[in-house]
Amino acid sequence: MTTSKPATSLPLADVPPTSPSRPALTKAQQALVDHIVDFARTHHAASPAALVIEGDAGTGKSVVVNAAFERIQQLARDRQGHDPLAGSRNLMLVNHPEMIKFYKRVAGTLPAVRKGDYQRPTSFVNQCHKSGTTADVVFVDEAHLLLSRSDRYNHFEQDNHLQEILALAKVVVLVFDPHQVLKFKSYWNRQRLQDLLHGHVVKHVQLTEQFRMHAEADVSQWIHGFRAGRLLPLPAEQSFDFRIFDDAQSMYEAICAHDRTAGMSRMLATYDYPYTLDGKDHFITEGRFHLRWDRSLPQEPLAWAERPDTIEEVGSVYTVQGFDLNYAGVILGPSVGWDEASQRIRIDTGRYEDRAAFAGQQGLDDPEEIRQAIMLNAINVLMTRPTRGLYLYASDPALRRQLGRLRDQGAA
């Protein structure tokens, strides 16, 4: 068991650094915040420019951009100031409904930031086109969720979110992680990003230090191996609680116990179980385990990860992406198996229930390879949510046996 303090009711990965719930920035993070502000000062009146911040989940990308955004808004709204950014129009965009809820709520506690400073990308693009306005500095958190094709059902008529944003802003600051791409219609890789940024002044920053998972490096290495289709020996025993379960109900009971003592502990699952937005409850059943999927509550002001009642639900990648948990119990559903012959993870795209993730494959080379990458990315997102402990259960018998072997070898 770790001796670190329990998480607050806020998802710490996204709490602005000025919040009482957020530890002070490290010297390196503060230096990056200063660099972002200077980059905006230098380029907002000179030429189109983009600053791309990359890094794995938990490397503090959102923390840094929130601190930089708040600083820039302080400068922009200082009526007596003479800073080049004084009077500038700046926005934070995020294509994630749960994170928008959180950002707008936290904005009310920060003197320089307003709720209207946070928008969905489609709203920003459509409003700018309708009013003929532009922005000075636009931050895009979780830029890997931007649409890379039109989505008329959701009122985006243009070809590409980022292409539109680059045309409507003088400076764009992007948080980008290609290992968190989850859909064909928002399919990104580094080459696609580079092609769109051609013609702009571009600066890249790579973050590597892990802030979320209070774990030794072998935990991140194990997760990286899994998303590459390999099973490495289990991490060594340490304060971060990494466990393999043979029974999903037992895992749930352990998660409930942690939620009672530490808070912010939840069950999560791959999108391998039927779920329909029809107002009804839909359930995940694995042996003795039987629990409903997360309910869609768009009018609920709290994000799913923040609500205490969601200990009675199973979260999906769409409700937890971008948020921290203390402990996560992850169910690897039937689409995630083990191939004894190749000694590799086997991904069965035909058993993935998130069919919307695979809509819009036109123009993509090797869509089957991308399907598998999307599913492994989703697993990566689920596994990288917890700060203090990760528990795994595999539905597929072969994978469950192999994980059990690794557990037993580590205990020998």
From TrEMBL:
Region (Disordered), start-end ranges: 1-23
Boundaries of every Schlafen group 3-like DNA/RNA helicase domain copy: 49-396
Highest taxon of source: Bacteria
The name this protein goes by in its record: Schlafen group 3-like DNA/RNA helicase domain-containing protein
Organism of derivation: Frateuria aurantia (strain ATCC 33424 / DSM 6220 / KCTC 2777 / LMG 1558 / NBRC 3245 / NCIMB 13370) (Acetobacter aurantius)
